[in-house]
Amino acid sequence: MPELPEVETVVRQLRPLLQGRLIEGARVLWKRTIAQPSAAAFARDVTGRRVEALSRRGKYFVLHLSAQEAATRARGARAPSARSAPVRADRAPKLLVGHLRMTGRLFVDDDPKPPWTRATFPLDNGRHLIFVDVRKFGRLALVDALEQALPAMGPEPLGPEIDGEWMAQALGERKRMLKPLLLDQSFLAGLGNIYVDESLHRARLHPLQLSHRVSRARAVDLAASIRDVLTAAIAKQGSSFDGFYRTPEGQPGDYQHEFTVYGREGEPCLRCAAPIRRIVVGQRGTHFCARCQRAPRKAVGERRRASKAGGSR
DNA sequence: CAAGACTCCTGACGGC
DNA sequence: TGCCGTCAGGAGTCTT
Question: Which nucleotide has the shortest C1'-to-CA distance from A135?
């Protein structure tokens, strides 16, 4: 599922294909894909704008759009609502903000409507910007400012301020299990199930460990691990393993070959050979090595079974 | 403040 | 062969 590395890859690859292009129209095939404004207003207001830049915030991608160009706006009569609305569109620059969630894909294609297309935008070069989303969880929004579309979000994990110091303090300020804490976008923006599991394993931290009990040294390791994992994943253009995520160029990512715990239940830990285990934490599959990632002193039944299963020591 | 449950979705997969 | 229940999972919302 698209997390920070995947979205970063999408933005990087789409940039040369979209920057400077004019969006000539919009067709929304699944209304609920549009978070705001209404699907009709979205289609009308996105029409006639030029893509000036692309960026990413957490797992969200952002298309920075120019003010609407009057000439093409009239031509954009193909937008579903254009006829009914006495065009009183806000001509100020807009931001098209979107989230791929589980199965969303954003790419440019010659085919105006591939299978599972939820929104499609003809461009001024004859091609189309396509939003495909099998499970319909993905969302697009058109807003004036980023804060309008995004919930409160923590800092970017690859930002310069995220270091051992920051992590030690941030973990100390909360009393939460590491797995759900790292998944919380208001704590750190961009981590998802895969990269949290991978980062915790790299830092030798148990997913159920309580944040305020993590030692300073471990916190420093965690900050570095997150940075290393994300950086490596971006270099590999993200992870593909379930047939959903593809780069805008249609290629799968390569980081799935580097997974040390995710999806490896029962297989040997690459560090100590103990079998990787899978538990459910906060409704989410969680993978870890019970030997490398020591169970929190006083945790759930997990530890009980772990020690019974042969915890020498 | 923390955390679990529930919801939204649909393709894939196991079981019979 | 084919029907059916179960799962996965990001994030918002509602309870406990």
Answer: B9
Asked if A139 is an active-site residue, the reply is no
Token couple for A251: 């290629």
Q: Which of A91, A174, A213, A284 is catalytic?
A: A284
Q: How far is the CA of A311 from the C1' of C12 (A)?
A: 40
The pLDDT of residue A298 is 55
Cβ neighbourhood burial of A95 (10 Å; 0-12, 13-18, 19+): buried
A16 is catalytic: no
Q: How far is the CA of A136 from the C1' of B10 (A)?
A: 9
A28 neighbors A81 (Cβ within 8 angstroms): no
The model's confidence at residue A62, banded by pLDDT at 50, 70 and 90, is very high
- Cβ-based contacts (< 7 Å) between A 82-121 and strand B: 102
| Domains of chain A: residue spans and CATH | 4-149 (3.20.190.10), 164-307 (1.10.8.50)
Alpha-carbon separation of residue A214 from A71, A97, A163, A202, A222 (angstroms): 60, 36, 15, 15, 10
* Structure confidence by residue, pLDDT tens digits, A217-250: 999 999 999 999 999 999 998 877 777 778 887 7
pLDDT tens figures, A117-151: 999 999 999 999 999 999 999 999 999 999 889 98
- pTM of this prediction? 0.88
Q: How far is the CA of A26 from the C1' of C3 (A)?
A: 39
